[in-house]
Amino acid sequence: MADDRLHLEFFGAHLLIEGRPDWLDTLVDSFAPFVSLETAPPEAFFLKLEETDSLSPPPDMPVTWDGKLPEGHYSKIYESDEEAVQYVENSARLHISYDTARSEAQLMPGAWRHFHLLSIFLVVSAAMARDGLHLLHAACLTHDATGRELLIFVKSGGGKTTTSLSLAHKGFTLSTDDASVLHENTDWPLVWGIPRAMKVHFNTARLLPWLGEFPEAWNRFGEQSVPLAQLEGLIGMVDTPRPNKLGAIVFLGERSSGDHILRPMPKGDALVAIAHDNVAWRPAGMTSRAQHRFSALADMVASVPTFELSAGENLDTLSDVISSAMTAALRVGA
To answer: Does residue 2 register a pLDDT over 70?
Structure first.
């Protein structure tokens, strides 16, 4: 790796990043399994990171996302069929050109700390999409009994991390609790996860006492970041990223006051729920890229059993419930 360049490869999708060495070192830590020492091919998606004292103005394009980032900075994403711009107030501006496979990030001094992962994932997603890979906001775990993958969907704060840790404690092997990837145009949906440090909420620590004591380092959202290596003694080894057959999809619903309730979820309802958090919308409708992504999600949902889960109080038994459903589905050829 050149001091100012970093080459990432995601099973055929290439991303070349140019920027300050200390910034790239952060990305090496975040994307360690995908760092390539080979020369990036000419067709690799390119991202240039630059520090600046002033940002280019927001573009005149439809808004597809509008809200606050986890660190509290207000942000908007503008998107057309050809390009996208993320504008973070008084902090950063990211421009992505889908047609030319090039992107550029302008960062004000000190902006890298809260910019780097959330915005880099927008570029990773664009690079993957050129090769038929779709980055999804979902947890991914391998079912030990069948070897198939389980995807868990719900909006941020809905319980993916708590559920993932519960399953990884027995019966499942964790790939990721947040960033999964779907391969399109395969005979059967193939998925895998991007390992990331887990943001553990203090409620998760309370519900899963076997996690042990946590330092009093909760942020204003009641969370703290826990490296996966710190959890391996409790949940086993984290899966090495590799495309594998999808076995089932679970969407997390409201908690149950009694036993766990795992019910089949109608395919249409499952697709709408998943797309709501994984496809960009705008008043004028979906862009052509969003339509393609929606179609890939529809094919995925049509191929495997879909469930809605209302988790009960005893999370120690949750793995048995989901494991039984996945084993039964595979037995009948689902």
So the answer is: no
The residues pairing with 244 across neighbouring beta strands, listed in sequence order, are 191
Handedness of CA 294, 81, 8, 121 (dihedral sign): negative
Q: For residue 181, give both structure tokens.
A: 């990837």
**How far apart, in whole angstroms, are the C-alpha atoms of residue 19 and residue 263?**
48
Residue 49 · residue 34 · CB < 8 Å:
no
Average pLDDT in the chain: 93
Beta-strand relationship, 92-97 and 83-88: antiparallel
- Structure-token pair, residue 166: 């519960």
**Token pair belonging to 161:** 């991390």
What the block records as the tokens of 289 is 């890229």
Collapsed DSSP state (helix, strand, coil) of residue 278: helix
The gap from C-alpha 266 to its chain's centroid, in whole angstroms, comes to: 24
Element (H, E) at 122: helix 112-129
The yes-or-no verdict on residue 334 having pLDDT over 60 is no
